[in-house]
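Board notes, transcribed. Complex of a protein with (2S)-2-hydroxybutanedioic acid.
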Amino acid sequence: MKQFSVCIAGGGSTFTPGIVMMLLDNLERFPIKKLTLYDNDEERQSTLGSAIKIMMKEQAPDIEFVYTINPEEAFTDIDFCMAHIRVGKYEMRELDEKLPLKHGVFGQETCGPGGIAYGMRSITGMLEIIDYMEKYSPNAWMLNYSNPAAIVAEACRVLRPTSKVLNICDMPVGTLRRMSQIIGKEPKDLEVSYFGLNHFGWWTSVKDKEGHEYLDEIREYVSKNGYLTQIEVDTQHTDPSWQDTHKKAKDIYAIDPRFLPNTYLKYYFFPDYVYDKMDPNYTRANEVMDGREKKVFSQALKIVEQKTAKGCGFEIDAHASFIVDLARAIAFNTHERMLLIVENNGAIANFPDDAMVEVPCIVGVDGPEPIAQGKIPNFEQALMFQQVTVEKLVVEAYIENSYQKLWQALTLSKTVPSAKVAKELLDDMIEANKGYWPELK
Ligand code: NAD
Ligand code: LMR
């Protein structure tokens, strides 16, 4: 079987060790000859890189392994770039979450003002790594799961329309795992229909390969329990704040019980609830910094100190194996059916062609072919149109250095109560994001 050369951009990410272990666990399906970690933060990269190097020597000595902050070294002769960067790191995520609270609005990584601020930062970082990839490996594909994926995907559509970048999110994958538990199936045995934007969508069908529909059974469960299940399906979505989100799906579901909702709709339907539950001194960023980040980096230091990764506890991110499914689909033309964020072009019949939507696609050697989802109801269509316009305005504001358009984006967001609050928030966000955002005029 062909062997591939892979670069992980954001090599100093808290997810990197789990993703590397997942790749090692999937070598039979997706053989790797060279693995490179690339980050623009030397300290984070060398801490994780030196630990993973020890692990690679022990577990996969035949794979060439490199970690670097040099883009030419990282992106030369690669087949795939798996991208999970966080521009501004956790320090800025914390501000995205805490600053809106001062204005009576909740703060979140990808939704509302927090997501808009993060989006304005991410576009620059994403363009940078896409350009490196195209310069040093013009035939490579980027599999991107850096957030906020909706804004990143729209920026790619407008600014890098011919680049081979696929934007994918792990949330529908995680929720499908929960659904499969509810009905006693394996996720790989299920096929879904879904329409929406990233972090803003609905399942309309969950069938097994024989065509049996499970929607009613899952609806019955979700109407009582949300997506809260007995056994945890991954390590990422198990912290207390996530348990609340899985449970809250019950109330989101009640608004339109025809479909099964994405958990992130909580932020748009219940912003007052989210705001009231938030602790201004301790948000999700703090939960991750005190949890996953501390754990991963202390494990790395221990591995380096002991000169062995044996018994040192990096955990396989099995949940992330959808990234291998996506890479395989392109590399081996497997025609895998997956949810991706793609240009609509009629996939949702009554929605603009140029909107970046999340729908099932068949993925092969030339990338994704979206599967038509037909017409959607007025309620969902109106909500999606409002939200996609916010995302488009953010990208326009970025390109045109437009204060006006970013103010409009915040004013239009369902999460912000008035144009006055939007303006006050924007002025604070500009201050906080100096050096990360283009200068707005
Ligand atoms: P993290 O802060 O631990 O890691 C991100 C890394 O990116 C950091 O080491 C940082 O230095 C690096 N980075 C920032 N800008 C860069 C640039 N221009 N070039 C190279 N490296 C750069 O963050 P994390 O919690 O591990 O999350 C990483 C990303 O993955 C985030 O964007 C997060 O939102 C995303 N994520 C996506 C999904 C999904 O399925 N879509 C799921 C979970 C996390
Ligand atoms: C994470 O940091 O785990 C996320 O990217 C999603 C979240 O808020 O948990």
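The first helix runs from residue 16 to 25. The pocket of nicotinamide-adenine-dinucleotide (ligand 1) is lined by residues 9-10, 12-15, 39-41, 44, 84-87, 89-90, 125, 128-129, 145-147, 149, 169-170 (CB under 6 Å).
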